[in-house]
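Researcher: I'm preparing a figure for a lab meeting and need a structural model of a single chain. I don't have an experimental structure, so a prediction will have to do for now. The sequence is pasted below. Please return the structure as tokens so I can convert it later.
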Amino acid sequence: MRNRRGCFVTRIPLVFVLGLACAAAAFAQKAVSTPAPSTGAAPSGSGASAPASAVLSRAVALYSDGSGHSSRFVQIYTPAGFATTRRESGTVSLQAPQRIRFDYDPLPGTPSDIPLPPNPRPEKKVFTYDAGEGRFFSPEEKQLTVRRLSEDEKARLPVVFLTQPSDLRHQYEITMEPGEPSAPVRLLLTPRIARPDLAWLRLAIDRDGSVRELSYQDSAGNKTEFRLDFRITGPPGTRIVEN
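Model: Understood. Here is the structure written out token by token.
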């Protein structure tokens, strides 16, 4: 499947798509300014309020405990100007400070609250990132692609919530969006310097630091969302024992 620019958008994670298939098109065309979503909150002059920094610090502490963390994920890609979306699912594993692995499943295995329409021909594929280097392996094509990711591409990976808030403040204007006290806290990160491939980035973080969602939009209006579930719940009927 190709988008309107002729770039592949469904075979590999979008961070790789933008870096490999669309690099020439991104720089050949004039970037379209895409405003960040309205937060309804007053911006902070320092780039991040104390509550927002505290939320980010909890996420850093949770995922930087020296252990590996795994989650089911759903990736939702919405091309600019289209109402239809492309959904894929799988398992993401990460370990601080900069190791990530996406295993895309050939069959949907998504959290029960996220319905996944059947893909015409889903395929198994793997994307890994380690200290600046991205690797994409397609078993179907028997091909391994290796690439050094740019700062823009790295910003759209889950390593963004492993970054210390003080470092994020240098790169982004950070605002906290209003919401219910029991709901995950939503943070909007807007680049301080305009980037062609990143207009804004949003995180949804639970009170314990667990990241539930990571979404972003590029300057052309293409949007990608990752929904994460690090908690194991089991299928319906599973007996839960608490100690």
